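To fix ideas, we reproduce below one chain and its tokenised fold.
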Amino acid sequence: MNIFIENDPKKLGEAAGKNAAHLIKQVISEKGQANIILATGTSQFETLKQLIDDKEIDWSKVVMFHLDEYIGLPETEPASFRKYLKERFLNNVAPLQAVHLVDGEASDPQEECERLGKIIAENPIDIALVGIGENGHLAFNDPPADFNTEKAYLVVDLEAGCRMQQFAEGWFKSIDEVPKKAISMSVKQIMSSKHIICSVPDSRKAEAVKNSIEQPISNLYPASILQAHTNCTYYFDKASAHFLQVEP
């Protein structure tokens, strides 16, 4: 378990982004192509900026997936993760070899899960960027998470704590606007990534961080499954690591 604790969220994101950039360039050098997963949300702002600022990454040799998307939310809405990734990342780097976004507006969400599952099966993931939710979720795998499904993507119900986090972060004007369903990458699919970089800033995540790191692995603490990954690196700030007893 590799844990780095930075003094502030900006430094956390910079460190995570530098690690991700290094791994992407290394994989491209070794394999000629890097398959990556990007996360969204406030925890990823500085990490994505670091990737954008690294001019040595050959994005034409990168295939990108992302973790999740709300069902039924138009891409024009501020909370859309497709909108987030286009505006905060894709529009600011050279064209990628391929980009596979989750279409939350697909007429049949189950078919969208199957479509993405077939594509990602042909592109084993080298580097995954993830965060941890206030309720301990990994992607939108809320507790109790499904640790056993072999499906790469799932239609999931969003529990109350997850929806409240999205509202409190300012993505929606009211809790009633937060969708109740989403398409999420599964836990097993995330865990199949060769490298995982987990970035978690802010004091409101401190309890979830403690449970994810120090509790036994349990689907009641979905991100605790990362303890079982051999190449997972965590980046916390002082606030999010406040309750931890482990030494970084």
User: Anything to note?
Assistant: DSSP finds seven helices and ten strands in the chain. The beta strands are 2-6, 34-38, 62-66, 68-70, 98-100, 127-130, 153-157, 181-185, 195-200, 232-237. The helical segments are 9-31, 45-53, 81-88, 109-121, 160-168, 187-191, 206-214. The chain has one domain: 2-237.
